């Protein structure tokens, strides 16, 4: 199986993302049912943050040995990582969200609630949504082989980054911001 088979059957397939999706739905349901009022003892809060940080770091750096080829994982360990990592990362993110909403976020909540991050959050999310299309348009319009070197990679990366963020900016201003305004109008009447 080639790279395209891997991408279509493992990376793009929606059922490969069902774990984090379900975890996010459950966290949202918990916050909706409790209206964001969950009282926890300090021990549980500290333990939750410690576990979330440790698991998050393990998700990010757990494949370092595989990437550098210094300490390649066994097949069983790689299977475990591929099975658990996305759901574990989703659980870590849900802990941050639940902790911040319920008042246990501390400096993390202060940082994430900073007003410039609101628009940047919308912009980066839109960039995340449209970047595969920008990459696809770029690669499918190439009429010759790509010479792979550091300079070409940097220029390509910066170009895709620039066009992705410009398109995201236009889409946020043209579609998302008006929809947020309409949502505020319609929801304020109830």
UniProtKB/TrEMBL annotation:
Recorded superkingdom: Eukaryota
Protein keywords: Membrane, Transmembrane, Transmembrane helix
UniProt cross-references to InterPro entries, sorted A to Z: O2_lipid_transport_reg
Transmembrane annotation, as ranges: 12-31, 43-64, 84-105, 117-139, 154-175
Protein name: Nose resistant to fluoxetine protein 6
Species, as recorded: Candidula unifasciata
